[in-house]
Amino acid sequence: MSEKSETLWTKPFLVALFGYFFLFMSVSLFFLLPLFLQQFNPSQSQIGLIMGIHSIMAIGVRPIFGWLIDEKGRRPVSLAGILLLMFTVPFFHLVRDAGAFPLLLRALTGLGWGISMTATITMCSDLAPVERLAHSMGIVGVAGLVASALGPLLAEEIVRQFGFTWLFHLSSIFLLASFACIFLTRETARSPTKKNGGHEAMLKLEGLKPLIIFFMASLPLVHGAIRGAMVNFVALFSRSIGLEHVGPFFVTFSLAAILTRFWGGGLSDRYGRKKVIFPAALVIGLNVLFLSQVRNFWMLILAGFIGGFGQGLIFPALSTYVIDTLGRENKGFALSLYLSLFDAGMGLGSPFFGWLSDLFGYRAMYFLAGLTILIFNAFFTLKAPEPLRQSSDNSGNKDF
């Protein structure tokens, strides 16, 4: 059978994918944690710190554990991260204030999430045919999008019916399901020559010119910043122009991203990474410019759809661009680096563009955000190298 006829939808891939879905569901339930903390009358800065430390820990730990994923294997690192989450979540039952204890627990969940998420995504991509790397990344992203949509909805209903005690119980149940899926999935074999992934990846980075590294890193960082500006302020922007219902924007955004990843997630596998990254970032930039001109509900819905379309295209192409640049044998490190850059952009971009909105208003803020990604997209397209696409793999992708 030729490689082109290999299917993505194998049993090992699906089991690992469900492992990632259950892991994401467990974490997404905690989007409602601020409601739990409100009973202790905290300040908004306390809630922000407790919620934000989770992302900060995840960003910080990913590059450190990325090389470990390549050195020790995806499965044991993923299981270790999930075990840390399983150990930590039950302690939320003992939270009695919004002080140091929940801050510590959120830091630990961020640590476990950063470790397990990166390792599990890498494991899923290993179980896909090598020529469908971007497509597999797109499908994994779909699982995350679905979980991030269903998790808060389910959490709301659970809290309404049974209280926060069962929210923490349900999170533990999802973690147990995730652990079982990953435990039952046989990891692909790795070549002995490809075990020093983090070191090899660093050598590859050192071999590139600093300006080239800058252009390679800039687009994931800027993309994260623009994504943060787009989704974190759209509710406030909508209210400022008299639109009360912003939920349909997020639903349309998620649906468009999901549908796009199913049919377009593998485009960069066929045509090259940069040939997909450029139009995807162009769509995102033009859409943010369009968002700055939104005047009514249907324009807002259209902006959500176009934004989701661009997001659905760029994530598989841009993440696999970083992987191909650093080498498939360094996939864990490369993926952790990409996710850290994107999340750092989200974390830094939100306060920066919030500051711009305070100075100039939401419309000007979105206009400047759109121009920013368009400018960086042009520099990326002109200066960042096109990595060689790999058509074969020695890491045992056919061992299932």
Features of the shown structure:
mainly alpha; 15 helices; 78% helix; 0% strand; globular
Pattern of helices and strands:
HHHHHHHHHHHHHHH
Report the uncertain regions: 1-5, 391-400
Number of distinct beta strands: 0
Alpha carbon gap, first and last residue: 15 Å
How much strand? under 5%
Mean pLDDT: 83
User: Any idea what the radius of gyration is?
Assistant: 21 Å
> Given the helix and strand composition, which structural class is it?
mainly alpha
- Largest beta sheet, briefly? none
Total DSSP helices: 15
Shape: globular
Share in helix: over 70%
Structure overview:
The protein is mostly helical and 400 residues long. Helix content is 78%, strand content 0%. It contains 15 helices and no strands. The chain has helices at residues 11-28, 33-37, 44-72, 74-88, 100-126, 133-162, 164-184, 197-206, 210-240, 247-264, 267-271, 273-291, 297-326, 331-360, 362-383. Helix 10 packs across helix 13. The longest helix has 31 residues, at 210-240.
In short:
With 400 residues, this protein is mainly α. Helices cover 78% and strands 0% of the residues. The chain has helices at residues 11-28, 33-37, 44-72, 74-88, 100-126, 133-162, 164-184, 197-206, 210-240, 247-264, 267-271, 273-291, 297-326, 331-360, 362-383.
List the helices and strands and how they pair.
Layout: H1 11-28, H2 33-37, H3 44-72, H4 74-88, H5 100-126, H6 133-162, H7 164-184, H8 197-206, H9 210-240, H10 247-264, H11 267-271, H12 273-291, H13 297-326, H14 331-360, H15 362-383
Helix pairs in contact: 1-5, 1-6, 1-7, 3-4, 3-5, 3-14, 4-5, 4-7, 5-6, 5-14, 6-7, 6-10, 6-13, 9-13, 9-14, 9-15, 10-13, 12-13, 12-15, 13-14, 14-15
